[in-house]
Amino acid sequence: MTLNVYLAGEIHSNWREEIMQGCADIDVQFSAPVTDHDSSDDCGVAIMGAEADKFWHDNKGAKLNAIRTRKAIGDADIVVVRFGQKYKQWNAAFDAGQAYALGKSVIVMHQAEHQHALKEVDAAALAVVETSQQVAQILRYVQDGSLPT
């Protein structure tokens, strides 16, 4: 069985690549948001035209990104949501809520110091971890029932 996994959240580190490398030998298909920050921010005005007001600039981009995100979360069997150290990822919390509302299996990844701030998100998740390696091990277990050696 192929697992379809959407990797949502923080875009400032290589956690996605670490998970993909950890799952290279199992049947997993990954999808993700656009991780080039400028492209993600400016997609709306690049395609639909410039906006003088920053609110509408951001609004256009957010809506185009939402098309991609809704499709990817809808197609996913599992949604992994990473909350990073440096920035507050409000979009990641939104993605986690959307995935939960759609009945998707959600794995949340963050450091221990964010535990209190993310308690509601964690409560909705089926697994809460701190490392990419743990996510890869969960996906391997779901895929073939094997435990880490």
Automatic annotation (TrEMBL):
InterPro entries: YtoQ_family_protein. SUPFAM superfamilies: N-(deoxy)ribosyltransferase-like. NCBIfam families: YtoQ_fam. This is YtoQ family protein. It comes from Amylibacter marinus. The lineage of its organism: Bacteria, Pseudomonadati, Pseudomonadota, Alphaproteobacteria, Rhodobacterales.
